[in-house]
């Protein structure tokens, strides 16, 4: 090999590798998380599949309900030991509560049992579509914050209700995408985007209605901070595989949001340059 050939060989650059982005964290009341997927612990075919699905999701927060256990009877110990063995942050909820007093009592019992001030506040306002009760939600949020709880309120995509909750001191909002368990995705993108844009410093977690990984990607592309899932994973034919799919879709949506989405247009625009095109194909 000649000296010239050797010099040319030395100039060849190594293959490009994917650019590693710095680790980005999600903050929930001062706790930093790397995963943007929160996952529920109900409806799985078996405890073992639940455990494997949660692990496959990469979630660092798992939701659970005191209503699944009777503390006085020491029930459900096997379930709680399995949950605790995962080493995740616990987010108790007040699922099934209809009134202010019910939710406050369940929140207090959950704090004692699970040793956390976090509470996902749920208050059913309608038994048909399980829509949260906005009036009771605001009242109960105020009470729980005064009691020292860090409230994550499950609400609709109503901007005014969101403003009341933020004014009370909520650092996190959990608006629905659509009614719980429906899998319909984000029914009102405009309303959800309005909440995101109106409260840029508030953590927004879409909770309920997400049925497909593409729904999760859409939410993250809008600037939503995280997703809470349960039914979409637990009722999949293969929950572990679906949990992995959601983890990947959420990361894809976040990457797209950070990269900056192209602006939508009402008219077509050519993607192929017109250089060297016949003059009659070029704009006059």
Which labels suit this protein?
single chain, 284 residues, alpha/beta, TIM Barrel, 10 helices, 10 strands
Q: Estimate the mean pLDDT confidence.
A: 88
The CATH homologous superfamily corresponds to: Aldolase class I
Principal-axis shape: globular
First-last Cα distance: 54 Å
Instruction: Please report which band the strand proportion falls in: under 5%, 5-15%, 15-25%, 25-35%, 35-45% or over 45%.
Output: 15-25%
Low-confidence stretches: 4-19
Number of β-strand runs: 10
Instruction: State the domain count.
Output: 1
Helical run tally: 10
Structural class: alpha/beta
> What is the CATH architecture assignment?
Alpha-Beta Barrel
Strand order of the largest sheet: 5-4-3-10-9-8-7-6
Backbone CA Rg = 24 Å
Helical amount among residues, as a percent range?
Answer: 25-40%
- Main CATH class: Alpha Beta
């Amino acid at each position: 090999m000649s000296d010239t050939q050797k010099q040319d060989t030395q100039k060849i650059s190594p293959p490009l590798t994917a650019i590693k982005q710095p680790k980005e964290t999600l903050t929930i009341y001062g706790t930093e998380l790397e995963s943007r997927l929160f996952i529920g612990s109900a409806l799985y075919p078996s405890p073992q599949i639940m455990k494997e699905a949660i692990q496959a999701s990469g979630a660092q927060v798992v939701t659970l309900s005191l209503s699944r256990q009777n503390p006085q009877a020491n029930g459900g110990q096997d379930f709680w030991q399995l949950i605790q063995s995962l080493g995740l942050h616990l987010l108790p909820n007040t699922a099934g509560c209809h009134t202010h007093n019910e939710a406050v009592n369940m929140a207090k019992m959950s704090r004692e049992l699970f040793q956390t001030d976090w509470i996902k506040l749920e208050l059913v306002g309608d038994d048909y579509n399980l829509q949260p009760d906005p009036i009771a939600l605001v009242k109960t949020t105020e009470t729980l914050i005064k009691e020292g709880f860090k409230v994550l309120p499950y609400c609709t995509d109503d901007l005014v209700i969101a403003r009341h909750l933020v004014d009370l001191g909520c650092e996190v909002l959990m608006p629905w995408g659509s009614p719980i368990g429906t899998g319909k995705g984000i029914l009102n993108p405009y309303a959800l985007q309005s909440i995101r844009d109106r409260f840029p410093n508030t953590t927004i977690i879409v909770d309920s209605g997400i049925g497909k990984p593409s729904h999760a990607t859409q939410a993250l592309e809008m600037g939503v901070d995280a997703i809470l899932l349960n039914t979409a994973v637990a009722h999949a034919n293969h929950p572990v595989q679906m949990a992995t799919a959601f983890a990947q879709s959420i990361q894809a949506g976040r990457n797209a949001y950070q990269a900056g989405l192209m602006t939508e247009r009402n008219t077509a625009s050519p993607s192929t340059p017109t250089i060297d095109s016949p003059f009659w194909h070029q704009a006059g």
